[in-house]
């Protein structure tokens, strides 16, 4: 069940939103069972970490943070 909790959408806006939800549900239903969707590259946490690895040494712990 879908409920509009804020605003007053027009019938066209509501139909467009429901079309997106139904299309997404159809894609997920047609996927083989047990298959995981492939994550996009932009959501890969390794993208934020950069390409340089911290150099070993006595102060290396200060360069091993995870960027937020």
Automatic annotation (TrEMBL):
Query: What organism is the protein native to?
Result: Streptomyces bambusae
Domain of life, per UniProt, equals Bacteria
**Protein name per UniProt:** Acyl-CoA carboxylase subunit epsilon
Q: Which InterPro entries match?
A: ACC_epsilon
